[in-house]
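Record format v2
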Amino acid sequence: MLLEESAKFCPGCGYSIILMMLNQVLLSQKLQTKAVLGLDIGCSLLGWNYLPVNTFQTHHGRVVSTMLGYKRAQKDSVSLALVGDGGAYAIGWQGLFYAARRDEPVTVIVVNNTVYAMTGGQTAPTTPCGQRTSTAPVGCADKPFQGPEFLKNVIQPGAFLARVAVNDPKAVVSALEKTLAAQQAGHFSLVEILSVCPTNWRTVGKATFDYLEKLKKVYPLGEF
Amino acid sequence: MFKNKKLATGYEVAIEACFDAGATMMYGYPITPVTEVFTEWIKRGGESLQAEDEIAAGFGVCGGVIGGQKTFTTTAGPGHVLMQDPLSMAEGMRLPMVVIVGQRGGPSSGTVIYSQQEVNLAVHGGNGEGLRLVYSPSTIEELYFLTRRAFNEAWLYRFPSIILTDGYLLKSQGVFSVKEDLKNVSSYPLVKEGEQKHWRNIYTLEEELNEVVLQNKKDFDSIKEKVVSAETYQTTGAEILLIAHGIVGAAAKEAVDILRQQGIKIGLFRPLTLSPLADKELNQAAKGAKKIVIVESSLGQLAEIIRTNLDPKNIATFEYLQFPALGVETETIVKHFK
């Protein structure tokens, strides 16, 4: 496996682990050449030269709409949209929702670290209730946004929705394989990967993963 | 369909041009006055997607052209505002995105059929330097040819291209014929299977983006002479130079004929491309004019472009005939000179 460039992610970030697993799945399925990875804004954009896969950065919350256009133009491709929880569930939600509703055959990988990480940890739709951030100094008032649970009401038979956690590689790999299978069968797929952001969580070592375990109670893992 | 002279409606002609240009996919969102542009494409069997908003329609086009598909969209007014989001990505990544804009009165939802208040938006919208090709047709025939050119020049030079028209032209009928057979520029995938392209749209260092912007500007300037077009009419010995674009340009041309008959030494400069502007032709036409009269259906959006492109030595007395959000009739222009 060839890595193009060293990671530009913060130490301990979940993105580099997720991208490595994605690459492993593409490699084992011989899909590296067919795959095109579109990146949203925020930390996902740092993956632009990370994998030996066609990759391009898109725009502020617009990766899903762009990648469904790409897929419609290149029907034989494997169209992948990598996006954070803010990009997917706030700024890009309308595009994501309708892509799911129309059963667009694209794979959306949502890296959920429960904050706007690139901008310094502001409240995201996924920030747990009561969590204090620089945009919610007295604590986040809203209920956590559960993307796959929302989308299961609008998807078509054959579409795939799952939530896995970055510290369970087997589950991540298995979910990624299923998303690719769904796309190749002509359906929409989304996997939300609960990830870690020690920089913005201000956690070190074990504390990072203890927090991740707590998040699993807010965001149940599984297929939807 | 329109190869020989016949009567046709603007939106039919625009869509005829898209088919003739080799477009194979359209993304759209219904909005007056361009809904018929979208439905005509569908009625004639074109592949399409009705998106949930203009943002998704525009980014669908961006993804499609990256995949090598000749695709386009149409929008108007508040939809054109949203369309600046994908247009700004198209400008940043040099995507051959084609948009047919039917201007509405603004701001906001404004009116629905006509105005020339989207010039600034088309030319300078987005958080960049306004490196777009913007065409402004005055007649049904120009609507056809400029739409064909928009596709060709977008794919040849890789700049987003906007056909800036309005509901009057799109919904009016006119005699139309294709005089020559334009050759199409082929589309091609901007990301090829297996090439391992790593394509940025976000830069870490100011210097990196500065270099990209300057290179894009250099490219834009280098194609200028190939893409600019304008009509100069009755400008020889003209003491007054009338300047107008789009459908107001058609009224201005008629006004020049009438005023010339009345012995007034008046000529017309009518840009067919607003970006880039045919500055050489403009300055040639303005040379010797004592007065420049700029007519438009806005509060000076065309005037600003003209003043920017005028050589200081050609700056004469200016007069502005501005009718924001109103149609401008020939008689109104003629009356001004009485």
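The beta strands of chain A are 35-39, 54-57, 78-84, 107-112, 115-116, 122-123, 160-165, 189-194, 222-223.
Chain A has eight helices and nine strands.
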